[in-house]
Amino acid sequence: MSETVCKRCRGVKALPSAVPGFDTAVSMGCPSCTQVADCPTCEGTGFVFVWGKHGGPVANRCPDCAEVRKRMKQFDEALVPRHFWDAAWSDFERGEAGIRDAALMLRRRIDEGFRPGDAGVVLSGPPGLGKTRLLCRVIRALSLEKGFGVRYVEFAHLLSELRAGFERGVGEGELIGELVAMPVLVIDELGKKAVTEWQAGILDEIISKRYNREVSTFFGTNLHRDRAAATRSGAGGGVAVATLADRIDDRIVSRIDEMARFVRIEGTDQRPKHRRDD
Ligand SMILES: [Zn+2]
Ligand SMILES: [Zn+2]
Fold first, then answer.
1. What is the CATH number for 222?
2. Ligand number nearest to the C-alpha of 47
3. Is residue 83 part of a domain?
4. How far is the centre of ligand 2, averaged over its atoms, from the C-alpha of 45 (Å)?
5. What is the pTM (predicted TM-score) of this model?
6. For 79-94, what is each residue's pLDDT tens digit?
7. Ligand that lies nearest to the alpha carbon of residue 67, given by its number in the listed order
8. 97 C-alpha vs ligand 1 centroid, how far in Å?
9. Which of 13, 59, 107, 113 could form a disulfide with 68 if both were Cys (CB 3.0 to 4.6 A apart)?
10. Low-confidence ranges of the chain (pLDDT < 50)
């Protein structure tokens, strides 16, 4: 007997959505197939009761909705920016060659069984091509569809949070511990601003500690890897432009090379003119 796969969620049983009052995307049970909230097995509680060995009821996770609930939680905790909640693979199909090919490559790698510990990707290219949107689609695939722990951070925002934490007297280990252990970490807008020595130290610590674990890191950046790469592409039309190596230190860039593959995307800004703010 063949089961028909729901066309709306393709069997994932959950979809991303945006809810007023939340800055990040949140998941919902697919309204066309499974209503997690109305699961008939557990009446939507997520738990079923069985008789324990020594008598008395014991709560077990519901066998019919526990898995989808877990994946929904992974997506909610990934903190996908609300603006990109609806990122879809089809967004890139008619795009320019660079972003389209990057999307195809990433989708194929995920379909072929990407796991935390596999090499990540550095999406490098000028602003407005859809790099963040693509990273957000990757996050949806790895969390909501595959069930891995994932976290999105914008680099400058991360630094200001760390700074605020230090000011409250929270130790470095506590602040970055969660990020170091995250199975998949997506660091966006890397090198948007020049970093101080303290900030470079924090970044180095996160990256080098992740390097020694079975985790994967993805990056988004508007910058070229280094001067040679910028020159090859003719960036700046002869005027020197800032590169990742300038902004975040050569040593860190070398370590990133060992954990992620640089993918340079060229193309023109696709955003409406009034939204070009970086
Ligand atoms: Zn469905
Ligand atoms: Zn259930």
1. 3.40.50.300
2. 2
3. yes
4. 7
5. 0.90
6. 999 999 999 999 999 8
7. 2
8. 31
9. 13
10. 1
Integer angstrom CA distances of residue 267 from 124, 210, 271, 275: 11, 32, 12, 17
Domains contained in the chain, number: 2
Q: How far is the CA of 124 from the centre of ligand 2 (A)?
A: 42
Answer left, alpha or beta for residue 130, where phi above 0 means left and psi between -120 and 50 means alpha. left
Quick one: which of 199, 198, 190 has its CA closest to 259? 190
Question: How many angstroms is it from 48 CA to the middle of ligand 2?
Answer: 8
Ligand 1 centre to CA of 219 (Å) is 31
Domain shared by 44 and 182, yes or no: no
- Specify which residues 220 forms β-bridges with: 123
- How far does the centroid of ligand 2 lie from the alpha carbon of residue 33, in Å? 14
Ion ligand 2, residue ranges at CB < 5 A: 39, 41-42, 62, 64-65
Shared domain for 29 and 102, answered yes or no, is no
Half-sphere exposure in the Cβ direction for 204 (13 Å, CA): 15
Lookup: tokens for 41: 């097995």
- Do 107 and 37 fall within a single domain? no
pLDDT tens-place string over residues 132-153: 999 999 999 999 999 999 999 9
Structural domain harbouring 31: 14-65
Q: Which ligand is nearest to the Cα of residue 69, counting in written order? A: 2
Question: Is residue 122 assigned to a domain?
Answer: yes
The region that residue 234 occupies, defined by phi over 0 for left and psi between -120 and 50 for alpha, beta otherwise, is left
